[in-house]
Fold each of these.
Amino acid sequence: MAKIAFILLCHKDPEAIIKQAERLTAVGDYMAIHFDARAKPAHYKMIRAALDDNPNVAFAKKRIKCGWGEWSLVEATLHAVEAAEQAFPRATHFYMLSGDCMAIKSAEYAHEFLDSNDVDYIESFDYFESDWIKTGMKEERLIYRHFFNERTQKRRFYTAFNLQRRFNLTREIPADIQVMIGSQWWCLRRRTIEWILDFTRTRKDVMKFFRTTWIPDETFFQTLVRHLVPEHEIKSRTLTFLMFSDYGMPVTFYNDHYDLLLSQDFLFARKISPEAHELKRRLGELYAARHAEFDISNEGAGLFKFLTGRGRIGRRFATRFWETEASLGRERELMIVACKKWHVAKRLLGRIKQTTNIPAIDYLFNEEDTPLPDLGGIQSTLGKRTRHRRALMRMLFDYYETNRLIICLDPSAIDLIQDFYADRSKTRLLEIDCNFTEDYLIGHAMRVGLAGERTPKETLDRLLPTIRYDVVFESDRIRDANLPNHTRIHERASPEQNTPALAEFLSVPAETAREIASTDYLFAD
């Protein structure tokens, strides 16, 4: 059975480190600790006093002053790895951790998981071909030498960088090395660790190269594993669940994230809030549990994006439109049906097309497969339709040889609605107000990827109020925009009550509007 040697890099919170070491080694696993040489000496003494008698804990023989983006982080990791490799000959796997990580599965589950696949788990993507680096330096991290820390010695860092660039003082990447990049949180087999340590002793040229690269903790182990291990024995993923905010900062987990964390397909999570005492207690008890069962739904990243992607009140992640195209035409009338239940809006449009001669198109900005005529390719993808929305609408008016056209939009597309209202053409809006049962909201969550068939009930119970509020919020935003020619029909209203709004929206006689409003099963789910 797998036995894990945890490689712990830490620099603060000695009480938490002690508890983490005791918890992880209590079930027979091991830990090698590197405590930053910059940290308080009293904290290191406290850790040593508490753990020196634990035979399953080892300490790096040399402590390094670590700095973000520096070689020192890799050097500290190597010292801890060497200590673990020597002290724990029975360790089968070496798992990189930080002091902010905690297990989100039981030890029993983790051991069985590692036993089931004889592979190394490490993100390892081609440095130049992948888009892992979103902004900032890329090639410059490697071809120039970096001697200073960009965060603490900014002037020296950029002076040295600019001088090298000015005088073209570049260097070659070692010829037999394909540089890879990925997360620093890995889990490697013992054989791989032994190969890496041997490599560091024999390939001084590669070691010299990485010592002066920038942010080598994202490239060193990732490159060496891919260089030394057959591709089919590498899973290019991390077993540590972590997410980043739009500012590039790690997302912090709190007490109410327990169910969410357990349902993710990972063994550990980073980072746990120091104040999340209840979460730490429950996760600590979980690691020692026997026969624990886990329902993996893996919706964490999508759920986080849903809950936070709207920002605060202004929902600053709403789509922004920067393209300005010619008007649809002052004489034209665009009629928008906004409804969260797409099947209801489609049913209404079908009836409108049967009783009037107004061309109507379903959710062309929401659904890729909406039937559209061939307009030269501008209609081929949602991205093209949205970027060239006014050109697309002009072409549709021309194609149908009409000055009146109906389209459906999801209520979340308030920016699209407002953009069309800003045109010189006349715009009308019909909002369909529907009832939303819990079953419908759960189905909606599954359709958009916020939940799965195996999502725990506790997670759904927490999710449903947020989804319901989200629907209400979208409707409120439309109303708060005070758009002219805005009418509404309601599921709770009778056909007679909905008739005036439909007649106004379509500019048709009341009899025609009543016929449309009386559509059988209009609001049925």
Amino acid sequence: MMTYCFRCMAAAMAAVPLALSVQAEEKDSTIQTAEYEAADTSGAAWNDRIEQVVVTGTRDRSDIRLLSQSVSVVDRTTIDNSMQPSLLPVLTEHVPGLFTTSRGIMGYGVSDGAAGGISLRGLTGGSGRMMVLIDGHPQYAGIFGHPVSDAYQSMLAEKVEVLKGPASVLYGSNAMGGVINIVTRRMDSDGVKTGLRAGYGSFNTLETELVNRVRKGRFNSVASLSYNRTDGHRSGMGFEQYSGYAKAGYELSANWDISADVNLTHFNASYPGPVSAPLLDAFQSITRGMASASVSNDYGRTSGAASFFYNWGNHWINDGYTPSEGETSQDGRFSSRDNMMGVSIYQNVRFFDGNRVTFGFDWFIYGGRAWTDYVSGPSAGTRNDLVDKHEDEFAGYVDFRQDLWKWLSLNAGLRVDHHSRVGTEWVPQAGLAFHLPKDIELKLSAAKGFRYPVLREMYMFPPQNPDLQPESVWNYEFAFSQTLLGGQLEYGANVFYLNGSNMIVTLPNPSGSGMLNQNTGRIENAGVELQATYRISRSWSADVNYSFLHMENPVAGAPQHKLCAGAVFDRGRWNVSTGIQYIKGLYTSVSPVSTEEFVLWSLRASFRITGWLSVWARGENLLAQKYEINAGYPMPGATVIGGISIDI
């Protein structure tokens, strides 16, 4: 995989702003990193190369070339050009090896029949093996341990960084397959900017988003609201969502910053079940929230931050019933309230040139309460408690980088993580990054990831097992990348091998009847990821990415082949982009085995009428392919949505 951003091409690039909770160290003495503050690139040549600086994979901002692990970056320009209210389809299109399941035009839902499963290199987030972060803060549900995909809206993100392979040294449990870090938006120069985007289209679908950004002196803020809804392409597949986000920061001095933010999403989703056995009365009402506060410091040779975050969720679910199978309305309604709270403290120190050491400490507590309220039947008016429990973990870690020569960087890290029930886990990683002539980069890495079993697996619903132990996986990776033609052409390749043991699977109970969750599963995946981009001229650019995945034990939602190719035209008042996505060997079900192969064509265009008013349109699946991603849930045919954008 290329280790640079491959879609930063629609206009002259500006330096990407950094979340307030992560602060800078001085420029590296051996490889000059890019300025990360607001930069005026208006006079820069269109093919000037601006290096990528990331905050994922290390707790300080780093030139991406110095890291031994692979990181893909999807920037704000790419997010805007995609014209999607959700971040996940954008990542599926632009990050090789990553795939997200879907069941309709909008909305993922939770519980039975849910979509939004994030897979990276064959490890899926549905069981908590993929971690989503917002400005470095974990976002998974406290009881079920998985990301809630409907909470990750495009309006949040200045950019998204995807670290492939285990990131447990820095982020602990649930980061065994990789990390998606949403870096939130902020203003870089004094002023006030307000943007409104609204669209309407197929299946009575409405998309709206309002964003206001302010910077005045030492103060900056971002506030956004959105409302999205659709009737869906099948009866009983309606979805609506309300989202709000606000963040404020203040520079106390040249060395100290503070910031705080809150993100709230509520969605109502109905789901009709598989076409072979339609459901009635299946409905979900879900609220997810996140709040955080941080204080950060930057003294050049040392920098760091202390942050506090609190996530919460309320779930109300009616699982519905299948009349064709003789079922009647469910007597019970599932409810849960979960939360996760944490404190993260870290400090980066440069003892001498070419050196950076990070010392960090994390403490998390997560859990919640789940129950069933019976509204009819013989138990009407009663409540059945399913779980009411919290568990905690605390950890210390050290992350080390040393530039041995101008052409070689060594990275190593170790985390010691203690769980209140399971015990202590030791998590190492190490790697080398070679900076060779002709802008060639080579990377070698080995990293361990792990995941503690979640409350659902241990305490809720048969086949629960309170004696489960952590899962673990090792990822070995070789990466190559090169930049040619003064930055116009970039390409790269990744080869990886992933071996996991102690995986939690459901098997017949060896000591009795029924089924039981057990630590007997294995994962052995290998693959190749390719990516390239070519900035043809001031107006034209093209990119392509491909991933091949071999799984000894296939899982649903992870395609064997994924090819995405696209082109962007940006000139004058016009911005037009198009893309082809080819999927082959996608397991929609592994029992019984069912696979899919399909080609999707998308086309997006915007035209600026005045300096503040634009019109836009987006077409998806324009070849009207018939396909499924979730077994039994046919996807919509060709869809079109169009609207206006106002920027003042």
Amino acid sequence: MRWAAQDMEVKMNRRKMGGILRNCLAAAAAILVLAQPAAGEQAVYATSGNEVETVERSSDRVITDEDREEADAQLKYYVDSILKRTNPDEYTLQKLNDTVYSAYYYIANTEMSVSELWSYVAEMKGKLDSVVPDVSVTEPTTEFLSVGNNWDTPSARYGQQVSIVLPIINLGSEDLTDLVVSPVVSNDVTVWPFEPGTTGYVQSFAEIPGNPFGGNYDAAMFARRELTFQFTVREDVLTGYYPIPFEVWYTKEGVRCEEPVTLTVYIYTEGKPGAGHIGGDTSAVESKPRIIVTGFETDPAEVYAGDTFTVTIHVKNTSQEQAVTNVLFDMEAVESGSEANTTYAVFLPTSGSSSVYTESIAPGSEYDINLEMTAKTDLSQKPYVLTVNMKYDAGQEIDLTDEAKVSIPVLQRARYDTGDIQVMPASVSVGNQTDVMFSIYNMGKTTFYNLQVKYEADFVEGGDTFLGTLKPGETANVDSMLTTTAASPNGTVKALITFEDESGNPVSFEREFALDVYEEVYEEPTFPEDMAPAQPGPNVGLIAGIAAGAVVIVLIVVVLVVRRKKKKAAAMKLEDDFLDGLGEDKKS
């Protein structure tokens, strides 16, 4: 054995962990096979309880929307798996998108049988694989030698130097000796991304131990040999993934191998602008330009119902190599409302045509679509979708289509009014209160929020009234009590009414009413000159008043005394009559 006892114990523990990991991977692989059947097989789906539903994929039945959705989901899952195991550049990612979207379009618009559908799905998976090679897993080329999985795919630009690491593992049980490793160099730029040459390319080492655990991957990784090669990227290198093959010669049990083993790693290179791309069998996929919407604006910036506005939509040809020609844009507004059970478009072009044409859009260039439109007057305040349908040619392809949507917010102007303001009383003295009453009407299609009324004048205070929310078509009644603080004959009071519309914008308006506030005056009584005393002396009027008051008091006392005597006499007479009655009874 080539390892110490302590190392052997570590390897045994790794072997146990490796067995657990392989069991988990096997279970995951079984699930993946269940979820991803090949073309012509049955798809199995667990539904509820122990029931299992199967979908036949070799049937001659015409496909339904459910079949199309399942096929789209399978392709999306496959693209996701490619993205997880690779790191594609923007160009490669665009080709992936073009390929899968063309498949979506074909599936959505083609009548075919179930078996034809899944044969097409299998074909498109092959095309997707050809766009980006699987650089995350390298299958063993022999039963002995393989590339370790601890190496990340490097990237380099034209003219740069780069280090390529080749980790070699021996999965066989026998030791290998006298190993010689050399890259497979080519002058073809589509095959070899580096400057061709031979100096320093060949490396050798004495041995790589066998695997005493019969194919245990962890043990093989522990005993791996890593070789590093220095290369210079060609100036005319293409952009994409290059496979870098290495030939490995070895001796096993004293016998020199007759044919070398080829081990392959990958590198991602970035070429000069316009240098071209590479990435597997790129001829299987023809990249198509796409037109996308990059933004839009309206003039004026805020669009109100009933207004005429100009919408400018910015579109871009995403292709960096190919122009699009005969480009036709058709704007289609969402339909809303009804008049005699008829729907209508929320935006109508003022020119009568909703189409815009341009001869071409250069690669990577933008184009602005300008269209004058009118928003219907009865629209509710909310965003409305405007669909941009695009039809164009690209090279040999004709009638390519794309679609994009923009949402244009439509606002409603707040419409309001008030009833006559009633003031009761309309004339009041300082320090007293008056009642102000009137109604507020919401005559538009937008809701009023935080509706409130305040009063402004130098001679009144108080009366602030909060009414809250007022929906379209509703009425709010105001009943406020104002307190006067100063005199103001024929004064004017301003009622300030404020609220917020559905966009949160503050709105305010004013109403005025008259209020007469006077100062209450108290004056001393005055006498005519002929009644005023001629000479200073005793106050005759005061003396006469006191005398009259005394006479009144005397009269009251006399009346009370007389009444008391009358009541006493009446009571004594009543008592005598009662006694006389008793005497007569006794006699009888």
Amino acid sequence: MALNITGRKLFVKALKEEGVDTIFAYPGGMITDIVDELYKTEGIRVILGRHEQALVHEAEGYARATGKTAVVLVTSGPGATNTITGIADAYYDSIPMVIFTGQVPLHLIGNDAFQEVDIVGMTRSITKYGVTVRNRDEMGRLIKMGFQVASTGKPGPVLIDIPKDIQTITGDPEYPSHVDIRGYHPNETVHIGQLKKAYRLLKNASRPLILAGGGVRIAGAQKKLLEFATKMNVPVTTTVMGKGVMPEDSPLYIGNCGMHGRFAANKAVTECDVLFSIGTRFNDRITGELDEFAPKAQIVHVDIASASISRNVVVDVPVTADAKIALERLAEYAEPMKTEEWLGTIRQWENEHPLGMPTSNKIGICPQTICEGINQVFSDANIVTDVGQHQMWASQFIKLHKGQEFITSGGLGTMGFGFPAAIGAAVGNPKKHTLLITGDGGFQMNMQEMATAMTEKIPVVICIFNNSNLGMVRQMQQLFYGKRYEITDLSAEDGNYYPDFVKWADSYNCKAIRVTEPDQVIPALKEAAKVKGAPVVLDFVVSPDDLVLPMVKSGTPLSEMILR
């Protein structure tokens, strides 16, 4: 019989059993025992971030780049509460993650002890599962449960709160290989009758359209989507989170739809007679006014979470299934459809209103020009974005090829996500370039992570679209609020802008280049591509008057697009 071991030793044993090779951590009083145990451990890389919110975003980037369940470790109190925004972001974008928080000793819980918070209660609505370990002999089972829940079904974050005394008490040394979780039965099959019904509906359509979301990527179903769509000869549009699940050079791919979707894609959604949606929850950024969404279509909705089906859009054929399982079966049935006329109509819409931006700005560089330069120089890079206008320009103009990831904050839309997520993605996939597209506003929310990138020698090409403004809100003020630009200009009253990103980067010994003219874009990107084992900053000056178009005003139909 094996000897009992401390909770802290079991913690490390659990990580090794789960195949964890990287953990994103920040120390504090209630996890010093675990941190000490990690010091003695080989084979697990510990990334010390500079803020707990950033740690979670780094873990998100790592999970997206690797497909693994990411791990975060923070202390109690503010260490735990600082993770909440990142946890919510991971929850809404279905990122598999286990967050371990330290907690005050059991006998102090409920006594308002120093740095005591009920983090499990605080995060109950934004985690798949949360628990405080109150019995040392239950610790192994609870950790195993956490990893199982985080990575199965619809993935998401799990929080495990470990009191300080649990970390030092000895107990059961075993870490289970599997646990049965009462009431938790993620769907691993598909109802064939419903799937055939959905297929027949699509097969009989005159104007069919596939809408693919991030669930296709999460399920690893990209190849099956391409196979199915190609066999059927059916056009495909994607959500922003679905960008990259369909090859962008496919003649069947018509781009993103939604608030800033392509004209042809939004017209196709409006005019189709069958909308076959898979792996999307139909949020308001995709649907516009619900009553006018796909008004001529019968709708199929395939999603692994039954609770997401008919929650926002009432559908005709619901199918609860993993996207890959569903598409594998559908590909078996698939037969070519006569869609040439429909595809020709979509091409005509694209020709009428092609995606593009004017290039006659008096100041700055056109964002489309920057994106096209990135496509040319970094055609194999994983692309990470922050949140704002630059995010939408990237979704419009960045062209993804096989093997590239488009990593962005979709459901929560978290400014400050980009830089740490890019760090995590680079840690997870060091053989591939990682390029960040960010704005000057969002970048400043977690710019302290430059210290992490420099000390850990993490190569990220940071492209700042610098318009000296909070651009997306400014755009709404310009279009809908009479150009009353309140608290969106980040410049000082004298016109100076802080910080000077080149001087700021220099303080970290980080290479930086300010780019002010279009003919400087390609040389700057090529110079950045030469930098190895360190981040590099490219400060692209763009005009605050550049707009993300098309645009559908919130609450209006997709057919009512602002085009210029």
